C-alpha cells in the first residue's frame, strides 16, 4: 500500500458528494472524512482537532482531480 492510498480511495469513493464543495479543502484519515473547510489552514486545524498529530491527507476538491496536498505534522 502506498502512502495515503486509503485516504485517496476514501476521497474517490466520496468524490461526487464532495464535489458540491468544489474549491474548498477536505481532511481525510483512512476512511474518515474530518470535514470540509474554505481554506487550507482551516482544514489543517480541523484535521489536528479530529485526528491529532498524525499524518492525514489534505486535498483541494476540484472537478479535475489533479491537485493533492499532503500534510504531516513533524
Portion of residues in helices? 25-40%
What are the low-pLDDT stretches, counting only 5+ consecutive residues below 50?
none
Strand coverage percent: 25-35%
Average pLDDT, to the nearest integer? 89
Shape: globular
Biggest sheet, spatial arrangement of strands: 2-1-3-4
Number of domains: 1
SSE series: HHEEHEE
**Count of helix runs:** 3
Structural class designation: alpha+beta
Outline the biggest β-sheet: 4 strands, antiparallel
End-to-end distance: 22 Å
Number of strands: 4
Characterise the protein shown here.
The protein has one domain (5-71). It is 34% helix and 27% strand. The chain contains three helices and four strands; from the N terminus they run ααββαββ. A four-stranded antiparallel β-sheet has the order 2-1-3-4, sandwiched between helices. A hairpin with a 7-residue loop joins strand 3 and strand 4. The longest helix is centred in the middle third of the chain and has 12 residues, at 40-51. It starts with a helix and ends with a strand. The model has no long low-confidence stretch (mean pLDDT 89). This is DUF5678 domain-containing protein.
Could you write a compact summary of the structure shown?
With 74 residues, this protein is α+β, with helices and mostly antiparallel strands.
List keywords for this structure.
74 residues, alpha+beta, four-stranded antiparallel sheet, 4 strands, 27% strand, DUF5678 domain-containing protein
Topology:
Elements: H1 5-13, H2 15-18, E1 25-29, E2 32-37, H3 40-51, E3 56-60, E4 68-71
Antiparallel strand pairs: 1-2, 1-3, 3-4
Amino acid at each position: 500500500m502506498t502512502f495515503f492510498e486509503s485516504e485517496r480511495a476514501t476521497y474517490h469513493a466520496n468524490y461526487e458528494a464532495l464535489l458540491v464543495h468544489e474549491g474548498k479543502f477536505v481532511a481525510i484519515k483512512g476512511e474518515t472524512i474530518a470535514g470540509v473547510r474554505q481554506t487550507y489552514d482551516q482544514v489543517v486545524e480541523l484535521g489536528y482537532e479530529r485526528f491529532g498529530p498524525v499524518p492525514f491527507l489534505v486535498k483541494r476538491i476540484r472537478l479535475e482531480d489533479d491537485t493533492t496536498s499532503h500534510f504531516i505534522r513533524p
